[in-house]
Amino acid sequence: MDLPSLRCFQVVARHEHISRAAEELRVAQPSVSRTIARLEAELGVPLFDRRGRRIRLNQHGAAFLRRVDRALGELEDGRRELADAADAESGSVSVATETMMTLIRLLPAFRAAHPGVDVRLRQSPVDAMAHLLRTREVDFCLASQPLTGPGLASVELLREDVLLAVPDGHRLAGLEHVGLAALDGEPFITPSPGHWQRELADRLFARAGVRPVIVCEGDEPGALLDMVGAGLGVALLPAMARDFAGRGRVAWVRLETPGSHRVLWLVRHRDVYPPVAARRFGDFAVECFRRQAAECRAG
User: Of 53, 78, 187, 200, which residue is least crowded by CB atoms under 10 Å?
Assistant: First the structure.
């Protein structure tokens, strides 16, 4: 049992698919199959249930994966700690976020303050974030929904209103406030189920007994503003989206309903060693959003 075999098992367990694991590992598919077979022979139990070409992690595999994640995680923490000792002024930080829009203001400011730090970004659905943190694939997650799980620690970065975005010239454009009843039957643009905007919209509309007509749903929340500006429908968007209003002809209306806000959380795993670069990013993000909130209150 060696480290390459354990890493191979970890990737196969995550994908539950040999060919996808082989693509990520950049090795031939037969090599991955042989590695898993050798590991199972050495352990004396099957780690996957196989039905034709499909594989599923079984109870033995799930138990072993927890230990492998912990062991490889400890080794990664050791590598990070030694890298900090060797060069505390550079390093890297990896961040997962639901939409890149959230980082538009933060990242340029952080790069200017810490030019030696390499920032790596990935877009991720919220239901995959806890796994990314546990396996050290990212240092932080920016989530607009609470993340729960052992060892997760969250800091509130931002609490902002969610507004109704309508095309310029729409019958609701120019109003300061609007009730949800005015949206009954309105063409509505929304992310797919699972995104915080969709969860909020479904909750608000169900409470008000309103049924908008969903004309478009997708997996890129940042594209909603462009689609509203193109006149395809209306959407619920966070107040920060007004910074990007130049991308389309959009008017903004406040909702006359309680609960029309979102909270942005910075989430990390308490049991994972935080490199100096990650600690700097976390502290900077908290301060950056604190200043942003103060500017909004002053304005």
Answer: 53
CA–CA separation, 180 and 161 (whole Å): 15
Strand residue runs (E) in 101-199: 118-123, 140-143, 152-167, 177-178, 187-191
Alpha-carbon distance of 120 to 19, in angstroms, equals 26
The pLDDT value given to residue 148: 84
Cα separation, 264 vs 169, whole angstroms: 31
Domains and CATH numbers, the chain: 3-79 (1.10.10.10), 90-299 (3.40.190.290)
150-166 confidence digits (pLDDT tens): 899 999 999 999 999 99
Q: Which residue in 296, 188, 202, 178 sits closest to 242, CA to CA?
A: 296
Angle at 236 between CA 232 and CA 240, to 5 degrees: 110
Q: Confidence band (pLDDT; 50, 70, 90) for 70?
A: confident
Helix (H, G, I), strand (E, B) or coil at 27: coil
Choice between 52 and 27, residue whose per-residue pLDDT is larger: 27
Are the beta carbons of 237 and 165 closer than 8 angstroms?
yes
Percent pLDDT > 90 in the chain is 52
Cα–Cα dist 188/202, whole Å: 12
Sequence-separated (6 or more) residues with CB below 8 Å from residue 117 = 90, 91, 92, 93, 110, 111, 277, 280, 281
Q: Residue 299 and residue 285: Cα distance in Å, rounded?
A: 21
Query: Tokens for 171?
Result: 């019958």
Query: What is the three-class DSSP state of 246?
Result: helix
Q: How many CB atoms lie within 10 A of CB 192?
A: 13
- Mean pLDDT to the nearest integer, 40-67: 90
